[in-house]
Amino acid sequence: MKKILMLHGINHNMFGKRDPVQYGTITLDEINAKMSELGKELGVEVINFQTNHEGEMCERVHQAFIEKVDAVVINAGAWTHYSYGLRDALAILTVPIIEIHMSNIHAREEFRHHSVFAEIVKGQICGFGLDSYLLGLRAAVGAME
User: Fold this and answer.
1) Sheet of 123-126, strands arranged across
2) How far apart are the first and last CA of the chain?
3) What are the two backbone dihedrals, phi and then psi, of residue 11, each rounded to the nearest 5 degrees?
4) pLDDT (tens digit, 9 = 90+) per residue, 21-45?
5) Integer Cα distance of 7 and 47 in angstroms
6) Which residues are catalytic?
């Protein structure tokens, strides 16, 4: 079975509590359950990982390379806008990477309009809440074919 790594970034453990106007009331556990459910429908295994530590995120990306995961979906949160270290780790991967965001980053503060990952990802999906995750998973499966 093909494996897709779902990477959740900084502060995502606070979904459901943090800024419900931008992120809704869904929790990370609920997002992970929906992703796993859709993964089963699509015939892939979804592996979820969340951390608030940038180095740990980079190490998980390195592990994904060694494990030969088939695709990556990433919502890096604020790291999207400034983490060149995480960008360089992701650039090691030779599989499709889909960048997602629950909120529309282009309709928010100016610093959120830029993604340091944009040049290395297959595409970006933002502004659809939970559906950004589900669309991202579908895009990853499509990009693997």
Assistant:
1) 44-50, 2-8, 71-75, 97-101, 123-126
2) 13
3) 75, 0
4) 766 789 999 999 999 999 999 999 9
5) 8
6) 23, 101
The position carrying tokens 């106007």 is 21
- What is the Cα–Cα distance from 38 to 56, expressed in whole angstroms? 26
- At 142 the three-state DSSP class reads helix
Assigned token pair, 26 = 């869904």
Number of H helices, E strands in the chain: 5, 5
Q: Show the DSSP H helices in 68-129 as ranges.
A: 84-91
User: Token match 């990433």: residue?
Assistant: 74
What is the CATH number assigned to the segment(s) 2-144?
A: 3.40.50.9100
Cβ contact 16:27 at 8 Å: yes
Give the pair of three-digit tokens for residue 34.
């929906």
Q: pTM for the whole thing? A: 0.93
Q: What is the DSSP string of 72-126?
A: EEEE-GGGGGT-HHHHHHHHT--S-EEEEESS-GGGS-GGGG--TTTTTSSEEEE
Residue 92: predicted pLDDT: 98
**Which is nearest to 101 in space by CA: 80, 84, 120, 87?**
80
Residue ranges of domains in the chain: 2-144
